[in-house]
Amino acid sequence: MNCMDCRFHDVIDDPDPHDSFCSHYEAVICHKMTNPNPHTSSRYKSDQSEYRVVSGMCDSGEKRSRSKTPEWCPLDAKEKRRLAHNTRKFESKKR
Ligand code: SF4
Predict the structure, then answer these.
(1) Ligand 1 pocket at CB < 6 A
(2) Residue 13: its pLDDT value, please?
(3) Which ligand 1 atom minimizes the distance to the CA of 80?
(4) Model's pTM, two decimal places?
(5) Mean per-residue pLDDT for 48-57?
């Protein structure tokens, strides 16, 4: 299962303000969970996020590979089956 196939995920900008090579980085967040430990003074948007972060500071090409559904995912069994189906569908299209 992959969070990128879930309707509760979102992608936010997550650049490193002190490194121009990382200005295009993004983060994947989960709208179903609040961030248990937000750092409002952090320079990283993913640290400041009110929602829990699945993967932070990702190159656009690595968002999917770094967004495998975490253990803390709050979906119930039926929703996880639907998500697994969506991920299989996505992966079969890639072939
Ligand atoms: S953690 Fe679960 S609910 Fe949140 S985006 Fe990922 S799959 Fe969806």
Answers:
(1) 3, 6, 8-9, 30, 32, 54, 69-70, 73-75, 83
(2) 95
(3) 7
(4) 0.92
(5) 95
Q: Please tell me the residue having the least CA distance from ligand 1 atom 1.
A: 73
Q: What is the DSSP string of the chain?
A: -BGGGSTTEEEEE---TT-GGGTT-EEEEEEEEE-SS--TT-SSHHHH-SEEEEEEEE-GGGTTTT-BPPTT----HHHHHHHHHHHHHHHHHH-
Amino acid 60: pLDDT: 82
Q: Give residue limits of the domains in the chain.
A: 3-94
Question: How far is ligand 1, taken at its centre, from the CA of residue 77, in Å?
Answer: 12
- For residues 95 and 27, which has the higher predicted lDDT (pLDDT)? 27
